[in-house]
Task: structure prediction
Amino acid sequence: MIRKRPAGQRRADKVAARRRRGGGVPKPGTGLRPILTLPGLDGYGPDDLPDVGRTDGVPELRLALAQARAERELSYRIPPLADPAAYPQDTLVEWTATVGRHHTAILAADLDEHACVADLVDHRLEAAVAATVATRSAQPARDEVAILAAADGGRAGRALRLAAEVLGERTAGGDADDRALTWVATHLGSEAATRARDAAGVPAAQADADTVTALLWLAAGRAG
Result:
């Protein structure tokens, strides 16, 4: 009887075949899935989600981190598949130069996978909190957590735990708790406030998507 090769091995074979054909930079075949909507990593689909706990996509992560840092610095981003004609020439030059500067610094620092992922997650959390404050809506947090869950292969994993750890540090104790919960209740609803209060006591190692969503609301309450 012919045994079917494991899905992970079949995926690795496909990656190797792409390399032999000279098909450009392959998508990471294993490990923590790069966050789907980050600049430079768009275009991955559900079939590219990993089965194991590490990635061979560090070069892509470093480039995405450079673009995320450029977005943070400039307060705008140019998507990787954008039509250059849609942007002024000086904006294109500024974006390209800023990304290049950050990428050079990241390469010089030789940031590893964990450092890149941590910085990327932190950047996405900042964006989600800012969007929650700006829109007075619970939805940006849900959308961002869906991305993090996708990065974990659709289950609670390293990206969500890291997000919970970062948010837990931002929302731990202090005199702002009551004010933050009042903001959440006023703008996002009483149910969201209850979930935010409960999430504050959940250890990062036990955090799931609902926990991280509620912690984002609490962080927005502190920032709002």
Summary: Residues 1-9, 14-56 have pLDDT under 50 and may be disordered. The chain has nine helices and no strands.
